[in-house]
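hi! just following up on the protien thing from before. the input was this:
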Amino acid sequence: MRRACSIVAVGVLLLAGCNSERHSIVVGSKNFTEQAVLGEILAQYIEKKTGLPVERRFYLAGSYICHQSLLADRIDLYPEYTGTALTAILKEKPSGSSAEVYQKVKDEYARRFNVEVTGPLGFNNSFALVIRGADARRLHVRTLTEAEKYAPQWRMGVGYEFLERPDGFRGLAGTYSLHFAEPPRVMDLGLLYRALDEKQVDVIVGSATDGLIQAHDMVVLEDDRHYFPPYDAVPLVRQDTLARYPALGPALADLAGKISAEDMRRLNFAVDGEHRDLQQVVKEFLKEKHLL
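and the predicted 3d structure came back as:
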């Protein structure tokens, strides 16, 4: 938790030092690969479609820092997930269909924050409990319900936000009666898969579109009691930014539905697994989709 507090503190200091007098669109992101990929997709397409200058401010810690950055006009837009917006920011219960959650988030962000929730990008990136493939095959475990009896022997690794979120650890453990060998280990999101691979932990809370899952022979346990809400990826943008730059709204609308879960896993693996250059990976993807 000390690490988590340090990350948030650094994020706040960085934001405090930002110059609000700027003449470009500022795209932000959270502090993991998929967010940087999505941020770069937004940045490159906005640059190409509108000709407007774009500044990148990626890796701004987690949801809370990005949200505060948006409200404080330190960034103009960033990619978010509807389930995260619903629970972590709006403090609503994690329930509803994909369409219901999207509409609730869209309405409330406009009403409370003067922020536009644009069209979903095309994939749902739910939280995912991931174990080693060898363990899944040996124990014949495929669902979270089946994992209940093995959890007391397992050590869990999580990102720092997951312990505190209303759609996080407490509700999950209660829904599935999960009791682990020790309290969850909090670590940077980028270290979770290495810790699982090296048997420092036995189960981690990752994301359904993480590129390392298949590459490292890992298995996502099915959320068979449907604990997690939908997490459709959506750009969030300040309404005053849309008014200031009329070409921005149509550009964001062009991206709706253009990124599948398979696309996202492939992009994440290209950066995480193959260690390719982020900007080049995104440029190739946009050309493949005939967006550049």
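The longest helix spans residues 33-50.
The first strand starts at residue 25 and ends at 28.
cheers
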